[in-house]
């Protein structure tokens, strides 16, 4: 096998030509994701959405937990936090309360957000914390080699469900909406325009916003379940995804290779936790209430000299 | 700089240790608190919930202790001085993210009002049995700072010191109270704001192009960048290089972990706060911390009246442990006597540093109450023979 030598200069030029190079840490490329993985698509949509909103990279933070999608925080060129397994949401709760002037995004996987982080997910939604939560759902724990996830469809195989799963998986949009999310959408990695639109819309809203993106895991999930490659999964999405914004959310369960209902299911305006806190305390305490100090107040004005 | 007067209730108060710690947080400039109720620490959270809206702070009761410490780390990265408070079972739950705080180098304060354990143990009664958990509770190799107050006044003073140390050394600082100190009510004097020294965050002055989030300064502590100001930094719980980028190699692990250990270890003299009395000609040295250091006083006085030459070391800072002090004394004294409300934790550090040159005697107590000073006195008598 022969390889073509690329000079550092050529690499730099190629990096700069990348359409999303402004938002990506090109010095960390190549990324760890497998070819035919859907996470890169979700990240590409996010970069496009950010551009569309006109927000700068200095207006947002990205927090991830652990797992394949958990690596997103490491590849976005914004203030970014790669935290512990399951704790991206409560970590970002601290960020959003300390810096309400910025927009805070949690970008992580289904196992991280919904299994080990499930309690934080429902409570952040209940409180309507000012967070955009993007969940890439690949039906499995991919980074650790394909174990059973809280989203694995019934009968699908996993290393820890070698005879197929018999557990009912979570219906994520229904869960998010029942817990109190004010924006809920589900798309697949095939729906790049709609994913981008949803992200654009959600980035500009307040409160707890949830976007589920079904994404192919070619190396682990598809192979173990003999579903072909990532491309075959994209074909499955193409054939089986039905857009129905008005669908009853309790009917959004996903079976093994079943039809998938996608769409924007919730889009409401309700005061976020921070707003409610300040409004309530201001009303009850009157002039005794002191508006919360934010992290912005403590930043010296004379930074960036050296 | 000096404390912001808005949070400082200057005057003479009658407070228990829990409430005094809450006032210490208000005074230190803590403006974010995330916690979960647990006896015997809850009064700290309750006082903070009452006071914070009046001083520009935010209080949030999280869904559990895992979330509480995670939110504290996030808020600290967001630029606020942040704290949580808990007791044994909650302290156990916080361990993973205390490790994240160590790895990401996040200034914050964790108060543990110790109760009897293991497990649910004795929710309403004291112990000092989380001392090694404070030291080693999170997985991996690191050094930590832990303080142990023995009065409500110290709960106030040391909460401020804990915040100052956490900002200076970029590490979570533990305030290891116990149920007895937490629920003991005494006079607490809160000085005027302009007499209270506060350490502010060390924001970098390097411009974003040249900034490396984990490049250490001379004291081995890196400078922090503010959010949203063009630094666009990355931080991770993974082993990382100066850029904050994960690198999976033995070399970078060595560089990263060795510095986390050394920034505390090489600066013990600047960090460790120890009170010593009559060490010069001592035959027996009592080593104590927290409530046990106080319960030992009648025993020490009685032994002294009986002519035993007795010195006292009070560990205000338990971690990092003042190794050199014990090493230097070991050749000159007969024995160290250490009362602890556990079956042997910090005493092993004393024994290690004594290196067999002096006897080390633990006065153990299973928890639920403090020592009878008589028992400590008897131990002093025996080793002094």
SSE blueprint:
The complex is a heterodimer of chains A (306) and B (385).
Chain A (H helix, E strand, L loop, with lengths): L7 H10 L21 H15 L6 E5 L7 H4 L3 E4 L5 H11 L4 E7 H7 L1 H9 L5 E6 L2 E2 L5 E2 L23 H8 L3 E6 L3 H12 L5 E6 L3 H7 L5 H11 E3 L16 E8 L5 H13 L21
Parallel strand pairs in A: 1-2, 1-3, 3-4, 4-8, 7-8, 9-10
Antiparallel strand pairs in A: 5-6, 7-10
Chain B lengths: L10 E6 H12 L1 E6 L6 H14 L2 E4 L3 H13 L3 E6 L1 H17 L3 E9 L5 E5 L4 H6 L8 E3 L4 H18 L2 E7 H5 L1 E6 L43 E3 L13 H16 L2 H4 L2 E4 L6 E5 L1 H6 L1 H9 L4 E6 L1 E3 L3 H8 L4 E5 L7 H8 L4 E5 L9 H12 L1
Parallel strand pairs in B: 2-3, 2-4, 4-5, 5-8, 7-8, 12-13, 12-15, 15-16
Antiparallel strand pairs in B: 1-9, 5-6, 7-14, 11-13
Helix pairs in contact in B: 1-2, 1-6, 3-4, 11-14, 12-13
Descriptive account of the structure:
The complex is a heterodimer of chains A (306) and B (385). Chain A is an alpha/beta fold and 306 residues long. Chain A has a single domain (24-290), classed as 3-Layer(aba) Sandwich (Rossmann fold). Helix content of chain A is 35%, strand content 16%. Chain A contains eleven helices and ten strands. Chain A has helices spanning 8-17, 39-53, 72-75, 88-98, 110-116, 118-126, 172-179, 192-203, 218-224, 230-240, 273-285; strands at residues 60-64, 79-82, 103-109, 132-137, 140-141, 147-148, 183-188, 209-214, 241-243, 260-267. In chain A, the strands form two sheets. Chain A has an eight-stranded mixed beta sheet with strand order 2-1-3-4-8-7-10-9, sandwiched between helices. Chain A has a two-stranded antiparallel sheet with strand order 5-6. In chain A, a hairpin with a 5-residue loop joins strand 5 (140-141) and strand 6. Chain A is globular. The relative contact order of chain A is 0.13. The model of chain A has no long low-confidence stretch (mean pLDDT 94). Chain B is α/β, with parallel strands linked by helices. Chain B has two domains: 5-195, Rossmann fold; 274-384, Rossmann fold. Helices cover 38% and strands 22% of the residues of chain B. Chain B is built from 14 helices and 16 strands. In chain B, strands 2, 3, 4, 5, 6, 7, 8 and 14 form an eight-stranded mixed beta sheet that branches. Chain B has a five-stranded mixed beta sheet with strand order 11-13-12-15-16, sandwiched between helices. A two-stranded antiparallel sheet of chain B has the order 1-9. In chain B, strand 5 and strand 6 (122-126) form a beta hairpin. In chain B, helix 1 runs parallel beside helix 2. The longest helix of chain B has 18 residues, at 152-169. Chain B is globular. The N and C termini of chain B lie far apart (51 Å). The mean pLDDT of chain B is 98.
């Amino acid at each position: 096998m022969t390889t073509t030598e690329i000079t550092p200069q050529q690499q730099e030029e190629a990096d700069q030509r990348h359409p999303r190079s402004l938002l990506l840490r090109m010095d960390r490329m190549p990324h760890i994701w497998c070819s035919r993985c859907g996470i890169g698509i979700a990240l590409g949509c996010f970069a496009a959405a950010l551009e569309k909103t006109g927000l700068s990279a200095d207006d947002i933070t990205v927090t991830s937990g652990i797992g394949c999608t958990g690596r997103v925080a490491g590849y976005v060129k914004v203030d970014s936090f790669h935290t512990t397994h399951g704790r991206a949401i409560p970590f970002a709760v601290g960020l959003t309360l300390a810096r309400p002037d910025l927009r805070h995004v949690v970008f992580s996987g289904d196992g991280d957000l919904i299994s080990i982080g499930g309690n934080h997910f429902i409570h952040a939604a209940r409180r309507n914390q000012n967070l955009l939560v993007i969940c890439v759902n690949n039906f499995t724990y991919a980074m650790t080699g394909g174990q059973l996830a809280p989203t694995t469809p019934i009968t699908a195989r996993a290393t820890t469900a070698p005879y197929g799963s018999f557990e009912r998986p979570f219906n994520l949009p229904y869960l998010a909406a029942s817990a109190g999310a004010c924006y809920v959408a589900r798309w697949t990695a095939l729906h790049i325009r709609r994913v981008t639109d949803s992200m654009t819309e959600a980035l500009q809203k307040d409160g707890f916003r949830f976007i589920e993106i079904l994404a192919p895991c070619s190396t682990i999930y598809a192979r173990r379940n003999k579903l072909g490659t990532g491309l075959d999964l994209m074909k499955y999405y193409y054939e089986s995804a039905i857009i129905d914004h008005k669908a009853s959310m309790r009917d959004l369960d996903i079976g093994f290779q079943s039809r998938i209902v996608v769409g924007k299911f919730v889009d409401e305006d309700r005061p976020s936790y921070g707003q409610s806190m300040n409004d309530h305390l201001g009303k009850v305490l009157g002039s005794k209430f002191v508006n919360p100090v934010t992290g912005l107040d403590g930043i010296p004005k004379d930074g960036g000299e050296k | 700089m000096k404390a912001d007067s808005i949070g400082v209730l200057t005057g003479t108060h009658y407070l228990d240790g829990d409430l005094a710690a809450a006032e210490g947080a208000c005074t230190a400039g803590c403006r974010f608190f995330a916690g979960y109720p647990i006896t015997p620490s809850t009064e700290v959270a309750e006082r903070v919930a009452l006071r914070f809206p009046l001083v520009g702070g935010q209080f949030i009761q999280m869904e559990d202790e895992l979330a509480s410490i995670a939110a504290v780390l996030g808020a600290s990265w967001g630029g606020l001085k942040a704290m949580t408070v808990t007791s044994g079972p909650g302290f156990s739950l916080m361990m993973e993210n205390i490790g994240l705080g160590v790895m990401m180098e996040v200034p914050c304060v964790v108060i543990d009002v110790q109760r009897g354990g293991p497990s649910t143990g004795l929710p309403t009664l004291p112990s000092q049995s989380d001392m090694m958990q404070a030291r080693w509770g999170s997985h991996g190799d690191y050094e930590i700072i832990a303080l142990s107050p023995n009065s409500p006044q110290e709960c106030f003073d040391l909460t401020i010191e804990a915040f100052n140390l956490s900002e200076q050394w970029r590490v979570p600082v533990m305030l290891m109270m116990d149920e007895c100190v937490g629920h003991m009510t005494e006079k607490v004097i809160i000085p005027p704001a302009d007499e209270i020294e506060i350490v502010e965050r060390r924001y970098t002055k390097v411009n974003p192009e040249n900034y490396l989030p984990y490049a250490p300064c001379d004291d081995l502590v890196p400078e922090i960048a503010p959010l949203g100001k063009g630094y666009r930094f990355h931080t991770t719980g993974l082993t990382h290089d100066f850029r904050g980028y994960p690198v999976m190699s033995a070399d970078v692990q060595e560089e990263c972990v060795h510095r986390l250990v050394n920034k505390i270890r090489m600066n013990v003299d600047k960090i460790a706060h120890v009170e010593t009395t009559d060490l010069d000609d001592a035959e027996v040295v009592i080593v104590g911390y927290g409530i046990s250091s106080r319960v030992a006083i009648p025993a020490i006085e009685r032994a002294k009246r009986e002519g035993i030459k007795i010195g006292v070391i009070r560990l205000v800072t338990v971690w990092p442990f003042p190794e050199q002090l014990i090493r230097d004394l070991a050749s000159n004294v007969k024995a160290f006597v250490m009362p602890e409300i556990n079956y042997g934790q910090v005493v092993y550090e004393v024994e290690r540093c004594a290196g067999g040159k002096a006897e080390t005697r633990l006065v153990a107590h299973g928890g639920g109450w403090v020592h009878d000073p008589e028992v400590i006195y008897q131990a002093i008598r025996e080793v002094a023979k």
